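ingest -> fold -> write
write: protein_1
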Amino acid sequence: MYQLHYWPGIQGRGEFVRLALEAGGAPYVDVARGPSGKGQGMSALMALLEGDDLQRPPFACPALVTGRQVIAQTAAILLFLGPRLKLAPAGEADRLWLHQIQLTIADMVTEVHDVHHPIGSSLYYEDQKAEALRRAKDFRRSRLPRFIGWFETVLDRNPRNEGAAVPRLVGARLTYADLSLFQLVDGLLYALPRATRRVLKQAPRVAALHAGVPRQRRLAAYLASERRIPFNKVGIFRHYPELDG
């Protein structure tokens, strides 16, 4: 039984791990969302983050606990889970390429967050709104098309996508990076719907992946359940209409 430690009430970076666990059919506990009477809840999360009994403490969540092993950082968790959940290719070169793609997704997630918090995470959006407007303009015009264009190129150059109904980033089978790109695009469509739709018109393979990934049986059940936390204005992907010019 895996234990996922992440903030309750938001998707955040923890959602990339949840998608892999759900699609892979892995038994897990979303610790901070559980009852304190069962040793879960926020107290359990904070004990992991602030306790002094771990030789290798996580800097931040998400963190995955399995047995005595504690793994933090989304990309590292997925690198660990991928082979175990059959969400990673068999060959070393393909696994490294998959990891590179995941790290690039992580780079873009950080840039998405910094659109609405360009000065500092400790400040409210309203305290940095002028800077956010300027940052959002650059993100929409430069960074968004550049990232999505790169993902489109990766999909286009994967020879296993020839004739495939749903394109994959690496190989012909679903991987954790496909799940993560789905989540990234889904979040962008919530946060910056107008800008994202414009860019997706030039990235048909990315759009096809986003539309096709949720058809996986386990993932479809998860996305339709209460376990899937809705997007909101306290997560990474936040919709402020004035930023979606």
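write: protein_2
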Amino acid sequence: MSARGLLLVVWAALLASVPFVAPPYFMHLLIQILLWGFIYTAWSIMGRFGLVSLGHGAFLGVGAYVPALLWNYYAVTPWLGMPAAIVLAVLLGLVIGYPCVRLRVVGHYFALVTLALSQVVLLSIVAARDFTGGSLGLTINTIGQSWYAFQFPDKTHFYLIALALWAGGLAVWHWVDRGIGREALDAISEDEEAAAAVGINVMREKLRVTVISAALTALGGGIYAQYMMYINPETLSGLAVSLQIVFGAIIGGMYELLGSTIGALLTISLNEGLRVGFGTSFIGAANTIYGILLVLCIIFMPRGIIGALRGRGRRKPRRAVAPAE
């Protein structure tokens, strides 16, 4: 077995042993890190190719609310509700993505369109308060441990589910990164007109990566909602969570496989630190900190933490120049 294969086996063994050694509180934090790491990875699949979306809160909200509403009002199992949410998120991505690609809406204009999408979904959830609970949120009906209801009081089940989901997200990221369409997407991110001139189907490639990102984000929202058993439009849709997703993916390094996971570790640590240290004294402070750190990261570490560390490791020390005799 190669050294890389042995390292993967060791890491897999360590991750699998976590439920047997970690206390419940740290299990809770680790599950959140894995779930948000998956969601950030889904965003980075688009962001790394120049498709900067500020509307992933819309896909996240759809993924969280559709299975919850179907379960609460019609007793439809989340195993069917989550695929329905994924389909709806994909359709939403196509509704936004097709006109943007067709009309060549790029750059900050594309970001503004996606921002509007996230706010539309947020306001729609709040407006339908008779069904969604509005700004007060919605509690998912509990029936105890049940695979049919996707409810597990024991955190071990959700840890293993979150771990598998996170690993699957990394696999999709790697597939897109090493796939045959990678060069096409890179060319499109540099110059769409030049890419189209050499025969690249710009619309197909852009819509493909948008659909993948939207579907994965909706899936992450559905699993997260089932774990928390309570959903709120302010935390699972709209600008605030969209900014959190962008911040986490960029500051960790959206061009690196584990960059989004590092970003999730930072965001969860920040949220938990503010909650434990200040309680309710600084509600909303995390969003302000996200914005400040995001600006600093873009200026000083455009490739994120992992990218900066990797670049520093590649620098070779300058050789001392011998003095002239």
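write: annotation protein_2
The chain has a mean pLDDT of 87.
The first strand starts at residue 138 and ends at 139.
pipeline exit 0
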